[in-house]
Specification:
Elements (H helix, E strand, L loop, with lengths): L1 H6 L3 H15 L11 H11 L4 H14 L3 H5 L3 H8 L7 H15 L8 H4 L7 H12 L8 H11 L11 H10 L5 H14 L18 H4 L5
Helix pairs in contact: 2-12, 3-4, 3-9, 6-7, 10-11, 10-12
Length: 223
Amino acid sequence: MIILVDQLANNEWFSDRLLVWASQNLRDFPWRRTTDPYSIFIAEFLLQKTGAATAEVIYQKFIARYPTLPSLAEAPLEDIAELLQPLGLHFRATRLQEAVRIIVEKHSGQIPEQEAELLKLPGVGLYTARSICANAFNQPAAVLDTNVARILERFFGLQGNRVKSRCKLLWKAAELVAPQTDVSRWNLTLLDFGALVCTALKPRCSDCPLQERCNYNLLGGRN
């Protein structure tokens, strides 16, 4: 833990630069314009292993057809599956409806606010649960996906496990670099920065506001 804190010595500079970048570059999606728990819950399900631009079209159709949680709980599974088919993951529709029915039966139709309760729902992992907590309930819940992991590894010179989403080191790093307030915006900043600048292939290092102190850039584009 002490070693990790030492590795994150540039944290304040790192976060300041990224937040300045975010003030001009955050992407706009409909689920980012609301704090409605149901809308965000649906968005997070649709975004699993799916690009935001692809999910956006289906999200808008989905919310129009099933505007409330009860309307979704009562919908035929085959109709939900047909609507979600373009996103892939054939089991997504089943898990979504199972989760919604549990919410109706055990949570009085209200999306749970607690991470632990969200994690009990089918199809909800740690990333999805924390995204809902941060975006819908303004909780200081940091997230970790491949984009966030890549930024942390490159800038701070960290080396996570092969499966980034289960790496305790990277989860701890994500929590340590997150601010105490407005963590939702911070999470979106990292997601968009990883999607637009610090990309997996051909990262835009020459345009990167972090290049001056980035371990990856200083080593000539290698960890």
